[in-house]
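hiii, so i know i said id send this last week but things got crazy w the move. better late than never?? heres the sequnce for the chain we talked about at the cafe, plus the structure i predicted for it. fair warning i was half asleep when i ran it
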Amino acid sequence: MRGVAFGDGRRPVGQSLKGALEKAGLPPGVWMGRGLAALGLTAGQTVTERQMELVFGQLRHPDADRIERELLDDGADPETARLATVLGQPVEEIERRKATPLFALDYTFRAQASLIVLWALGDDHTRRVIERAHERAIATALRWLEDEVAETRWSSGRQRAKAPALVIAKWRHFDNRDGFPLLHDHCLVLNRAQRPDGSWYALDTVRLYQHVVAAGTLYTLTMTTEVCEELGLATVPREVTPGLRPVMEIAGVDQELIDWSSTRREQMAPVLERITDEYVKEHKRLPGERGRNGLGWWAAQDTRRAKKIPKPLEQLRAWWRVSAILRFGKAMVDGLLERCRAAGKAIRARVGPRVDTALAAVDVAAIVFTVRNSFPRRHVLAEARRHLLETLRGRAFTRGLDDYIADAALSRHSRQLTVPQKGRRAPAPDQLTYTADFAWPHRWWIAGTGGKPPRESSRYERARVASLALQNAIRDARILSAVRDEAPAATASAAARADDQNHGQAAPHTVDHPDRDAALTPAQRAAAIQAHQQAAMPEEYLEGRTTDPATWLHTPKNLARLAAFTQAAEARSRIVADGPQPKQPAKDAADPARQQQHHTTQPDQGRGAGRDH
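okay and structure toks below
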């Protein structure tokens, strides 16, 4: 009620939630999810204050007051009437076990900074397009959680069942605690789901937490694709932290505008740098991915400001526009959408709506393996969605292509580590752990910019190198195979058999829209796909880095190794050259017996001390 329902603000004491929202100009919360039918609610219905208290405060039916009153009128005792409205195990029983009940999970969906800038400074049409895409992307991510992830558990977690019907209350916020634009929705997922027999049980919240990244990547991919297709925009990778995965932002939105809206990042930067230095001094190493997330949360809490007074969206938009014009000028603010469309048109002219799934599977498997070493399917699926967003640059794609790439990465380039045990329940497909056998690239150093010292390559950068090596081999083999296909039938058949023996896999699915390039020859299709893959990775993303496998040998670390080997070899050569020369055995042709002795193999030759030496 304090942190979500009133726009990250505090409502006046004694004022109802509905009145406070209307006075502040904030939208009310709405119900979502397939589990609403069991509670007598409908999707899109307004969330009332009493419903919030009953559902998320007591784990009871949202219409518990009416149900309890009817049971009391029928003669039921008060305790029985109250327990009849409880969803699952009563809160009192959980607290008697000295456990803390978990009422809900807060899934927060927010767009990239560039989309938020367009939403805040664009015209009414642009704002409506972004908000509509935002809502549809949230609905898509929540449906995926219901269909693929959500499970109920009972008997201390030993028994589980699918839960394709969740109860969700969604609340929209417009700004951050500094008053700058930040379009985001809080989706409170009730920690209860109904089984087919009508009983209510707790959700497997650990499983929901584990899939939060995959749900977030699905939301980002869906929303960005819809906005880019409807407004004619495209995305470009922008590196936020050197060496880490880039963020796909809308092309044409200047970094200055992104920095203007991202006030929290500016506040967190010095604190994050300080606690990262403390971490390095204590652990003698840089933090990994999990450590960086923990340090980021710590920095966010240390710089978290007090709650603000919410304001209506129209008032906020007017203030944002004035602030941006005073800082950047009216021409830059008014021409924002046109610049984005011009940049998007140029990118769409060289990046087609096609995906090479064979190369995508290689890239996804190599990145996940190099970053994590061992991984479940959810990490591969999240990386597949990032790959689609990075490769298509905002273009639409065939539904289910992310699952196809993830399955191809697991089946072709990964091996299962989880071994089922006899007498125990077989693990679910998403509980299996995998690894891969990619060549682990050596570390290298990247020259610093702006007076900063050189830094060591990150795992993500080494992962891109590991995938590029195999991708280049697949491209070369595919073009060679396509050229052979244009030869006579007999020659083409022999070349195909030879290619299958060399690569051990069927012809890859190169294009998800086969009819688009039906008029091209196989060699032309292969060349077009290769050009598309290269165009989707702009040069500015790879600028200043050693990512070409051909240059691995020229990294500082490898050059130092080669120099050490060369010096050692030259030292050994000088020792041999300066030392005494071995005496040549005297020739004795006159004594056949001695000559026979020199050429006879001794019984212990090649053993003992001679072999050890």
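btw The first helix runs from residue 17 to 24. thought thatd interest u
miss u guys!!
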